[in-house]
Design a protein that fits this description.
mainly beta; SH3 type barrels; six-stranded mixed beta sheet; Coagulation Factor XIII, Chain A, domain 1
Length: 475
């Protein structure tokens, strides 16, 4: 886990911008959302800067938990969550409760540098009212990978050599142009945003996905309005627009079609007394979803306030459940609604990737969401991976003295319990194992370490953090 604090000037700016709320949040997390006592993120805290791969720590311990996801959204210039932006999954859905432990491991290099809100959203079953979703949000968190302290340092000045004219090397043969032009992130950039349309505006052209450093995306079109933006398809099948200022185009663009970007979304309406219009139900027009076959998503929008609501837009995403990749983003509209009135917003979709796998459709509006899961049928799509096998069942094994020994990596984290809190780091010494546990598919070993006060203390180490292990220890 790697983190560092902003400079004093930036911290002061952020604290003022959030009207003083971060002063309290910097020492204690904000209160849990109404109706929930078992959801909290304890790290990262507000006004934290993160980079690289991080563990998000906290608790999700709701009765009748169905699943929870970790999500992020880029903030606007006022450090608010944009009205039309969808929350982007940072990891696959998890189904097991966690108490004061790691909620998920997130690779922040897939997020462009900037300010974000991060949240955990947990869905619980309720036989009387249907599924409910509770959320806990941390805001703001800065992602900063380009200027992280672990970036390569400048190389040393080379030694001065005699002034001998170099032998000219033969001119290299230029590589052939690719059959299909593509973009790749420009040198010096981290991940880049993929947007709904060709403007840098988190409300009008919200972020729908991203391109990781070095990832190629084929170019499907050039913006017809002269902005120079490219219409691309990500490896997950998501289509969107990227700015020419953050990517390099490779190949012959003379044959690429001119494409009109979608019109920017209207600005968010002024606040009304109508209260939130929430997605309260989802269904699809067909009995199943088939790869490359269009279908219609029906989203039931309900005015949950006590006054007439303004017209609005609901954002819908398709997400691969295994790892949280967004494969498609669409939008539906709804009219002004009276209190308690519902409206069926229809959104047309076509899904093209990850056949024979579990997908989840998610609808977002007014900070609330609804979801629907399905298995993508292959249809005419080639290949497709079989459904993943279930994780191995939980198991415990105890060892006699000297039967099992492991060598934790120097600097690896100690935990007070499996999936628990970090309480220190190992020094690389070889240690006896007294017990091993497999929980949620991950193996932990219990070892005893010196405390400096006499009796050694029991701690736990992850199997992945062990550099040497006897065969007798494995199970």
């Amino acid at each position: 886990m790697r983190t560092r604090w902003f400079s004093a000037a930036v911290v002061l700016f952020l604290l003022v911008s959030v009207a003083g709320s971060a002063l309290a949040q910097d020492t204690a997390p904000p209160p849990a959302p109404a109706g929930s006592t078992g959801i909290v993120i304890t790290w990262p805290t507000p006004v934290t800067e993160v980079h690289g791969v991080i563990d998000v720590v906290g608790t999700v311990n709701e009765p009748d938990l169905v699943a929870y996801v970790l999500e992020a959204v880029a903030l606007d210039e006022q450090m608010q969550v944009p009205e039309n932006a969808a929350w982007l999954p940072m990891a696959g859905a998890q189904r097991q409760p966690v108490i004061s432990g790691v909620l998920g491991t997130v690779d922040t290099t897939f997020l462009p540098d900037g300010l974000y809100a991060m949240r955990v959203a947990a869905t619980v079953s309720d036989t009387t009212a249907g599924p409910s979703t509770y959320e806990y949000t941390v805001n703001p968190v800065r992602v900063s990978n380009i200027n992280s302290p672990l970036s390569p340092a400048p190389s040393e000045t080379p030694a001065i050599e005699p002034d001998v004219p170099p032998t000219p090397a033969p001119s290299p043969t230029p590589p052939p142009a690719p059959a299909v032009p593509y973009v790749v992130t420009a040198p010096g950039n981290g991940a880049v945003n993929v947007r709904r349309c060709d403007q840098v505006d988190n409300n009008a052209c919200p972020v729908v996905g991203g391109l990781a450093p070095g990832v190629q995306a084929p170019i499907n079109g050039l913006s017809s309005d002269g902005s120079g933006w490219y219409l691309v398809t990500t490896p997950a099948g998501l289509q969107g627009w990227v700015s020419p200022t953050v990517v390099n185009a490779i190949g012959d663009l003379s044959t690429v079609a001119s494409v009109a970007p979608p019109a920017p979304l209207p600005p968010p309406p002024p606040p009304t007394t109508g209260g939130p219009v929430a997605p309260t139900g989802m269904s699809i027009s067909t009995g199943s979803v088939v790869c490359l076959q269009p279908f219609t998503i029906n989203v039931v929008m309900t005015n949950q306030g006590n006054g007439e609501s303004a017209p609005g837009t609901v954002t819908v995403q398709d997400v691969r459940v295994a790892d949280g990749q967004v494969t498609w983003t669409g939008y539906g509209t709804f009219p002004s609604l009276n209190p308690g009135q519902t409206y069926n917003a229809q959104v047309n979709a076509t899904i093209t990737t990850f056949v024979n796998e579990l997908h989840e459709l998610r609808a977002f509006n007014d900070g609330q969401n609804n979801s629907f899961q399905y298995m993508l049928q292959p249809g005419s799509c080639p290949g497709g991976s079989p459904p993943p096998p279930p994780p191995p069942s939980d198991k415990t094994k105890r060892f006699g003295e000297g039967e099992c020994r492991v060598t934790p990596k120097a600097g690896a984290s100690m935990y007070d319990q499996p999936h628990g809190n970090r309480i220190g780091k190992f020094d690389g010494s070889r240690l006896d194992v007294y017990e091993a546990k497999r929980i949620n598919g991950k193996v932990f070993y219990e070892v005893f370490v010196p405390t400096g006060t006499g009796a050694p203390a029991p701690v736990w180490v992850k199997e992945q953090d062990v550099s040497s292990i006897k065969n007798a220890c494995r199970f």
